[in-house]
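Re: [help] complex structure
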Amino acid sequence: DAGITQSPRHKVTETGTPVTLRCHQTENHRYMYWYRQDPGHGLRLIHYSYGVKDTDKGEVSDGYSVSRSKTEDFLLTLESATSSQTSVYFCAISEPKGQSNTEAFFGQGTRLTVV
Amino acid sequence: GNSVTQMEGPVTLSEEAFLTINCTYTATGYPSLFWYVQYPGEGLQLLLKATKADDKGSNKGFEATYRKETTSFHLEKGSVQVSDSAVYFCALLLNDYKLSFGAGTTVTVRA
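Output below.
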């Protein structure tokens, strides 16, 4: 298994509170991603990073921010959690080797409930 | 934009039945195509992939062929087992290195 650790694995938080999810990798992969998984939507990209301090938005980035101060850690922050952000969040990593030789590895997921 | 459309589930089968999950895509360019599997309570694992037209990916008895003419990548298995019960996701990757996923298909195999 790829060395990806997400923390926490489960969290319940109140509406309006800030929440930070952490993804830690030991593979030294350049790209890191945050996805959310919701029924009927599959996985949707929130933000991704292509290097230290290099990040970009995905398709559902509103209400989320990210930071990557070192290769191994990618943090996802919900500045003020809302009930619509209740979801399962997955971190993924990849090391691009050309389009045909790149694959992504996923963490175990974080189940976040906003009440 | 880039998108992936999967057949809706859930799909319920008996053991040893034939499984097909349809997947079609829309992409600006020539994507690599993937099937990922998610077992209960776990993250996603790569099941198979194909990187160019007419390539066939295969793994664990599953197969999928990259059909450029129909923009499809249907997943098939000839004889499913209870252990194949999972959620299956079709995905594509372009040279921006961002995976785009379908909605997922839940498969339940009954003994």
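Chain A touches chain B at residues 4, 31, 33, 35, 40-45, 48, 50, 58, 90, 92, 94, 96, 99-109 (CB under 8 Å).
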